[in-house]
Structures are given as C-alpha cells and as structure tokens.
Amino acid sequence: MAPPSSHRRPPKSRALLIAVAVGAVALLASVIVAFRPGGGSGAGSGTAVSVADSSSSAAVTSASPAATRKPSASASPTPSASKKKSATPKATASKRPKATSTPQAPSGTGSLAGRIKPGVTYSGVATFYDAGNGDGACTFGPTDDVMTAAMNTADYETSKACGAYVQVRAASGASITVRITNECPAPCRVGQLDLSAQAFAKLAAPVKGEIPITWSLVSPGTADTLSVRYKTGSSRYWCGIQVLGHRNPVARLEVRTSGGWTVLPRAEYNYFLSEGGAGCGGAIRVTDIYGEQLTVDGIALKPNVVQGTSLQFARH
C-alpha cells in the first residue's frame, strides 16, 4: 500500500501548475501593456516624466531669445540676479558726483561767458601802447610776458575779460595770441584792442599806428596751473581773492561758508570781495565760462602772497 503522503502530491503539482500559469498570464499581460501606445505610464513613471518634461521645457526656454531679455532676468529671485540689479544703480550713482563736481557745458558754448564768447569773431582795430612792466587794470602784477593787450571798456566788462587769451588777426594774414591784462578806456571803441608795442609789431609796422583786425577767444595749451592771491589788507573780517594763471576766463568765484557756497562780487580791479569776511581763509571754488568748477582748499589767508595749486581748467 502506498504511503499516505503520496495522496498529497497531486494537489501540490496542481497548485504549482496553477501558479506558473497565473505568472505566465501576468507576464503576457505586462508585455502587451508595455508594447501598447502610451504604455508604461503608471503613477510613478508619470511623475518622473512630468519632471523630465519640465526640465526639458526650462532648457528650451533658457536657450530661446526671450531668456536674454531683462524681464526674464528680473523674474529670477536668485541672489546673483539681485546683485546684478543693485550693481547698475551704484555704478551710475558713482559717476553723478563726479559730473556734479566738475560740470561741463557743451564744448565751445561758454554758457557763462559775458560779452566775449567762444566761437565768435569780433571786428575792430588794433592800436598799441607802452605796457611798461606788464601790470595793468587787472592787477596781475609785473610780468615778463610782452604778448599782452588792453581791452576796450565795453568788452572789458568790469574785469570779466581779465586773463582771457584772444587770437588777433590782421588783414595781412599775420596773427598773434595775447593775454588781456589791462583796460583801454575811451577813446577806445567797442572791439578795439590796445596791444603792447611788441605784440603790435608782429602784425604791422608800428608807423601805421592803427590797423583793422578781427579777434576771437581761444583756450590755449599751457603747462601752468592756477594760483590764488589774497589782496593786501585781507583778514578774516574782509578779504579780496584773485585767481592767477587760468587758461579760460573766470566766470565766478565762491567761498564756503556755514550756509554753503557763497558767490562773491567781482571788482573792476579783478578781485572777488567778501565785504563781511565770510569764507575768508576757507575753501574756494572757481568756475570758468565753460562751467568747469575747480575747488581749492588749504589756501592760507596770507595777504599779497601768490599760492600755487595743482589745478587747471580743461582746454576747449
């Protein structure tokens, strides 16, 4: 007789066969699903595809021209983007104080000029006189420079012409450049220049006495720098301030006071006066007819002493 256990094998075989059959069916079903269009997109794989699709979309966007536009960049909240945005205003702001401290009018306009303006040719006559030691109404003092001239009263304009360089041209074609150091009162007419004898001789024979000329303001090259001088008698209660060696005509002189920069009036003898002593001995700001400002600090209140600086107006 067969042992009792032999009666249990058939059920196990059937169970095994059933399990194998079920597995085969499941495998076949998965293969069919996998090869179906859109197959394999279960929940887990769908999330992965969604992330991959968004990454791909982002990559395409960054490669497109729209990504280089400023709105796209400003939409990014990254620290690097915020640093770039803050860097632009800082760079602009750092330039503004420089443009304010030395403002320039458009080249050649001379917006602060008086009667004598750059780019304008004036007509008149030239005469000559014995300039002596070179001193004159501008009170620059004695000089070895013989290429000087006295300006007629109208164009002298209460010393606004002092220190201006003008190019003088004769009908013969000869020309010279002279510096205005003096005033030529009546009978000098508007447009007339009374040259030093040496300057006149470069244009015509002195025997002619008077010749027709044209003249215009120039801004010459120079290696000199500005100097400042306080007038004799200056103190902290009253002072007169003069600028020497300037390339371009001086339009304005200011002193720093407790209330800010104060403009000083100009005397006909070419000193800027502080009648009440305000700003005497302090910082000085000088402006030429082109609008350029030069600030001079550290000038001692020493009457009748020429004190040099390292500053000069730009050439025009």
Overall description:
It is built from 6 helices and 14 strands. Strands 1-5-2-4-3-6 form a 6-stranded mixed beta barrel. It is 27% helix and 25% strand. The protein is of the alpha+beta class. The chain starts with 8 loop residues before the first helix and ends in an 8-residue tail after the last strand.
What's the layout of helices and strands?
Blueprint: H1 9-34, H2 43-63, H3 70-75, H4 79-101, E1 122-129, E2 148-152, H5 153-156, E3 165-170, E4 175-184, E5 193-196, H6 197-201, E6 211-218, E7 227-230, E8 239-244, E9 250-257, E10 260-263, E11 272-274, E12 284-288, E13 293-296, E14 306-308
Parallel strand pairs: 1-5, 2-4
Antiparallel strand pairs: 1-6, 2-5, 3-4, 3-6, 7-8, 7-14, 8-11, 9-10, 9-12, 12-13
Using brief descriptors, characterize the structure shown:
single chain; 316 residues; alpha+beta; six-stranded mixed barrel; four-stranded antiparallel β-sheet; 14 strands; elongated; disordered N terminus
Oligomer: single chain
Given helix and strand content, the structural type is: alpha+beta
Provide the spatial order of strands within the biggest beta sheet. Answer: 1-5-2-4-3-6
Assess the beta-strand content as a share of residues.
15-25%
- Choose one word for the global shape: elongated
End-to-end Cα distance: 132 Å
Q: Which bin fits the share of residues in helices? A: 25-40%
Low-pLDDT regions:
1-18, 31-107
Instruction: List the helices and strands in order.
Output: HHHHEEHEEEHEEEEEEEEE
Number of strands: 14
Main sheet makeup: 6 strands, mixed, barrel
Radius of gyration: 45 Å
**What is the averaged pLDDT score?**
77
- Number of discrete helical segments: 6
